[in-house]
Write a structure and sequence with these properties.
alpha+beta, Jelly Rolls, four-stranded antiparallel beta sheet, 8 helices, disordered C terminus
Amino acid sequence: MPQHLIRKLEQFTRLCHEDRCALVETANQRPRLYGAHQDIIREGDTPEHVNLILDGWACRYKTLENGRRQIISFFMPGDLCDPHIFVLREMDHSIGAITPVRFAEISRAAMMRLTDRHPRVTRALWWETLVTAAIQREWTVNLGQRTALERLAHLLCELFIRLRAVGLTDGDSCLLPVTQVDLGDATGLSNVHVNRVLQELRAAGQIALKGKRLTIPDLEALQDVALFNPNYLHLDREGRHLDANQTVEHTPG
Protein backbone atom coordinates (compact mmCIF):
# COMPACT_ATOMS: atom_id res chain seq x y z
CA MET A 1 0.00 0.00 0.00
CA PRO A 2 1.49 3.36 -1.03
CA GLN A 3 -0.01 5.12 2.01
CA HIS A 4 3.15 7.16 2.57
CA LEU A 5 3.06 8.50 -1.00
CA ILE A 6 -0.63 9.36 -0.66
CA ARG A 7 0.01 11.14 2.63
CA LYS A 8 2.88 13.08 1.08
CA LEU A 9 0.89 14.14 -1.99
CA GLU A 10 -1.99 15.22 0.22
CA GLN A 11 0.27 17.75 1.90
CA PHE A 12 -0.21 19.59 -1.37
CA THR A 13 -3.75 18.75 -2.47
CA ARG A 14 -6.48 16.59 -1.01
CA LEU A 15 -7.07 13.64 -3.32
CA CYS A 16 -10.45 12.08 -4.00
CA HIS A 17 -11.27 8.39 -3.49
CA GLU A 18 -10.68 7.60 -7.16
CA ASP A 19 -7.24 9.28 -7.05
CA ARG A 20 -6.20 7.20 -4.05
CA CYS A 21 -7.49 3.98 -5.59
CA ALA A 22 -5.56 4.69 -8.78
CA LEU A 23 -2.36 5.23 -6.80
CA VAL A 24 -2.89 1.97 -4.92
CA GLU A 25 -3.56 0.05 -8.15
CA THR A 26 -0.50 1.54 -9.83
CA ALA A 27 1.78 0.75 -6.88
CA ASN A 28 0.59 -2.85 -6.53
CA GLN A 29 1.33 -4.02 -10.05
CA ARG A 30 5.04 -4.91 -9.79
CA PRO A 31 6.32 -5.07 -6.21
CA ARG A 32 10.04 -5.84 -5.84
CA LEU A 33 12.34 -6.56 -2.91
CA TYR A 34 16.07 -5.79 -2.78
CA GLY A 35 18.52 -6.50 0.01
CA ALA A 36 20.59 -3.89 1.80
CA HIS A 37 23.51 -2.47 -0.21
CA GLN A 38 22.16 -3.77 -3.54
CA ASP A 39 21.92 -1.40 -6.48
CA ILE A 40 18.36 -0.90 -7.70
CA ILE A 41 19.69 0.70 -10.89
CA ARG A 42 23.21 1.71 -11.90
CA GLU A 43 24.67 4.65 -13.76
CA GLY A 44 24.70 3.77 -17.48
CA ASP A 45 21.64 1.48 -17.26
CA THR A 46 18.59 2.21 -19.39
CA PRO A 47 15.73 3.34 -17.10
CA GLU A 48 12.43 1.69 -17.90
CA HIS A 49 10.47 2.16 -14.68
CA VAL A 50 9.74 4.71 -11.99
CA ASN A 51 10.56 3.19 -8.60
CA LEU A 52 8.30 3.98 -5.65
CA ILE A 53 9.80 3.20 -2.25
CA LEU A 54 7.24 1.37 -0.11
CA ASP A 55 9.44 0.23 2.80
CA GLY A 56 13.08 0.80 3.67
CA TRP A 57 15.64 3.42 2.70
CA ALA A 58 17.66 3.96 -0.46
CA CYS A 59 19.90 6.68 -1.82
CA ARG A 60 20.84 8.38 -5.07
CA TYR A 61 24.61 8.53 -5.51
CA LYS A 62 27.53 9.12 -7.84
CA THR A 63 30.86 7.30 -7.68
CA LEU A 64 34.15 8.69 -8.93
CA GLU A 65 36.64 6.54 -10.82
CA ASN A 66 38.76 6.17 -7.69
CA GLY A 67 35.78 4.79 -5.75
CA ARG A 68 34.81 7.86 -3.75
CA ARG A 69 31.04 8.16 -3.36
CA GLN A 70 28.79 11.18 -3.03
CA ILE A 71 25.25 10.58 -1.79
CA ILE A 72 23.02 13.09 -3.55
CA SER A 73 19.75 12.29 -1.80
CA PHE A 74 18.07 9.84 0.54
CA PHE A 75 14.87 8.01 -0.38
CA MET A 76 12.40 6.90 2.28
CA PRO A 77 8.91 5.34 2.14
CA GLY A 78 6.62 7.40 -0.07
CA ASP A 79 9.40 8.70 -2.31
CA LEU A 80 9.38 8.30 -6.08
CA CYS A 81 12.84 7.84 -7.57
CA ASP A 82 12.64 10.35 -10.43
CA PRO A 83 9.00 10.32 -11.67
CA HIS A 84 10.03 11.17 -15.25
CA ILE A 85 13.23 9.13 -15.43
CA PHE A 86 12.10 7.04 -18.41
CA VAL A 87 12.62 10.00 -20.75
CA LEU A 88 16.39 9.47 -20.38
CA ARG A 89 18.32 7.01 -22.55
CA GLU A 90 20.64 6.08 -19.73
CA MET A 91 21.04 6.74 -16.02
CA ASP A 92 23.48 9.48 -15.05
CA HIS A 93 23.52 8.32 -11.41
CA SER A 94 22.88 5.16 -9.39
CA ILE A 95 20.21 4.27 -6.85
CA GLY A 96 21.18 1.84 -4.11
CA ALA A 97 19.39 0.24 -1.18
CA ILE A 98 20.64 1.28 2.25
CA THR A 99 18.39 -1.18 4.08
CA PRO A 100 16.27 -4.00 2.66
CA VAL A 101 13.89 -2.13 0.37
CA ARG A 102 10.44 -3.03 -0.93
CA PHE A 103 9.49 -0.89 -3.89
CA ALA A 104 7.05 -0.80 -6.77
CA GLU A 105 8.21 -0.74 -10.38
CA ILE A 106 5.85 1.59 -12.23
CA SER A 107 6.02 1.26 -15.99
CA ARG A 108 5.96 4.16 -18.40
CA ALA A 109 2.47 3.11 -19.57
CA ALA A 110 1.13 2.90 -16.02
CA MET A 111 2.61 6.30 -15.13
CA MET A 112 1.09 7.87 -18.23
CA ARG A 113 -2.35 6.38 -17.48
CA LEU A 114 -2.18 7.67 -13.92
CA THR A 115 -1.27 11.22 -14.90
CA ASP A 116 -3.61 11.37 -17.90
CA ARG A 117 -6.68 10.24 -15.96
CA HIS A 118 -6.06 11.94 -12.61
CA PRO A 119 -5.13 15.62 -13.03
CA ARG A 120 -4.92 16.29 -9.28
CA VAL A 121 -2.37 13.49 -8.94
CA THR A 122 -0.46 15.05 -11.85
CA ARG A 123 -0.40 18.46 -10.16
CA ALA A 124 0.70 16.92 -6.89
CA LEU A 125 3.52 15.10 -8.71
CA TRP A 126 4.63 18.41 -10.24
CA TRP A 127 4.83 19.78 -6.72
CA GLU A 128 6.74 16.71 -5.52
CA THR A 129 9.26 17.17 -8.35
CA LEU A 130 9.72 20.85 -7.45
CA VAL A 131 10.28 19.97 -3.79
CA THR A 132 12.90 17.40 -4.82
CA ALA A 133 14.70 20.13 -6.77
CA ALA A 134 14.44 22.47 -3.77
CA ILE A 135 16.02 19.82 -1.54
CA GLN A 136 18.91 19.48 -3.99
CA ARG A 137 19.45 23.25 -3.90
CA GLU A 138 19.54 23.16 -0.10
CA TRP A 139 22.06 20.31 -0.15
CA THR A 140 24.26 22.45 -2.41
CA VAL A 141 24.12 25.27 0.14
CA ASN A 142 24.85 22.73 2.86
CA LEU A 143 28.04 21.54 1.15
CA GLY A 144 29.20 24.99 0.11
CA GLN A 145 28.43 27.28 3.04
CA ARG A 146 27.55 25.51 6.29
CA THR A 147 30.05 24.35 8.88
CA ALA A 148 30.38 20.64 9.66
CA LEU A 149 28.15 21.03 12.73
CA GLU A 150 25.53 22.96 10.74
CA ARG A 151 25.65 20.47 7.85
CA LEU A 152 24.96 17.43 9.93
CA ALA A 153 22.36 19.14 12.12
CA HIS A 154 20.63 20.44 8.99
CA LEU A 155 20.48 16.98 7.44
CA LEU A 156 19.07 15.47 10.63
CA CYS A 157 16.39 18.19 10.80
CA GLU A 158 15.43 17.59 7.18
CA LEU A 159 15.20 13.81 7.51
CA PHE A 160 13.15 14.05 10.70
CA ILE A 161 10.69 16.53 9.20
CA ARG A 162 10.33 14.49 6.00
CA LEU A 163 9.64 11.36 8.06
CA ARG A 164 7.15 13.20 10.25
CA ALA A 165 5.29 14.42 7.16
CA VAL A 166 4.53 10.84 6.10
CA GLY A 167 3.74 9.54 9.59
CA LEU A 168 7.04 7.80 10.32
CA THR A 169 8.02 9.53 13.56
CA ASP A 170 7.10 8.65 17.11
CA GLY A 171 6.91 11.87 19.09
CA ASP A 172 10.40 13.35 19.04
CA SER A 173 12.10 10.22 17.69
CA CYS A 174 12.40 8.25 14.46
CA LEU A 175 14.32 5.39 12.92
CA LEU A 176 17.53 6.53 11.25
CA PRO A 177 18.94 3.45 9.49
CA VAL A 178 21.94 5.19 7.90
CA THR A 179 25.54 4.69 8.97
CA GLN A 180 28.11 7.34 9.81
CA VAL A 181 29.71 6.55 6.44
CA ASP A 182 26.39 7.32 4.72
CA LEU A 183 26.10 10.60 6.64
CA GLY A 184 29.65 11.49 5.66
CA ASP A 185 29.04 10.71 1.99
CA ALA A 186 25.95 12.95 2.09
CA THR A 187 27.64 15.88 3.84
CA GLY A 188 31.18 15.74 2.43
CA LEU A 189 32.70 14.84 5.80
CA SER A 190 35.03 12.02 6.80
CA ASN A 191 33.76 9.23 9.05
CA VAL A 192 35.97 10.57 11.87
CA HIS A 193 34.56 14.09 11.44
CA VAL A 194 30.97 12.81 11.43
CA ASN A 195 31.64 10.90 14.65
CA ARG A 196 33.11 14.01 16.27
CA VAL A 197 30.14 16.19 15.28
CA LEU A 198 27.62 13.59 16.49
CA GLN A 199 29.42 13.47 19.82
CA GLU A 200 29.25 17.26 20.01
CA LEU A 201 25.51 17.25 19.32
CA ARG A 202 25.00 14.51 21.91
CA ALA A 203 27.05 16.34 24.53
CA ALA A 204 24.99 19.50 23.99
CA GLY A 205 21.76 17.53 24.44
CA GLN A 206 20.68 18.36 20.88
CA ILE A 207 20.22 14.73 19.83
CA ALA A 208 20.25 11.20 21.23
CA LEU A 209 21.27 8.22 19.11
CA LYS A 210 20.62 4.71 20.38
CA GLY A 211 21.12 1.99 17.83
CA LYS A 212 19.23 3.16 14.75
CA ARG A 213 16.86 5.46 16.62
CA LEU A 214 17.31 9.22 16.54
CA THR A 215 15.71 11.42 19.19
CA ILE A 216 15.60 15.21 18.87
CA PRO A 217 14.43 16.57 22.26
CA ASP A 218 14.01 20.14 20.98
CA LEU A 219 13.61 20.37 17.21
CA GLU A 220 13.51 24.17 17.18
CA ALA A 221 16.78 24.33 19.08
CA LEU A 222 18.44 21.96 16.59
CA GLN A 223 17.05 24.04 13.73
CA ASP A 224 18.71 27.09 15.27
CA VAL A 225 22.03 25.25 15.41
CA ALA A 226 21.64 24.17 11.77
CA LEU A 227 20.43 27.54 10.44
CA PHE A 228 17.49 25.47 9.21
CA ASN A 229 14.49 27.05 7.48
CA PRO A 230 11.92 24.40 6.48
CA ASN A 231 10.38 26.60 3.76
CA TYR A 232 12.11 24.62 0.97
CA LEU A 233 10.08 21.52 1.91
CA HIS A 234 6.82 23.38 1.12
CA LEU A 235 4.69 21.57 3.69
CA ASP A 236 2.10 24.31 4.21
CA ARG A 237 -0.53 23.04 1.72
CA GLU A 238 0.13 25.61 -0.97
CA GLY A 239 -2.20 23.73 -3.31
CA ARG A 240 -5.30 23.80 -1.12
CA HIS A 241 -7.13 25.48 -4.03
CA LEU A 242 -6.72 22.18 -5.92
CA ASP A 243 -8.55 20.12 -3.28
CA ALA A 244 -10.68 17.35 -4.71
CA ASN A 245 -13.61 18.15 -2.42
CA GLN A 246 -13.28 21.93 -2.44
CA THR A 247 -16.57 23.76 -1.88
CA VAL A 248 -16.97 26.76 -4.12
CA GLU A 249 -18.84 29.58 -2.48
CA HIS A 250 -21.06 31.67 -4.67
CA THR A 251 -21.72 35.27 -3.81
CA PRO A 252 -25.37 36.16 -4.24
CA GLY A 253 -25.86 38.44 -7.20
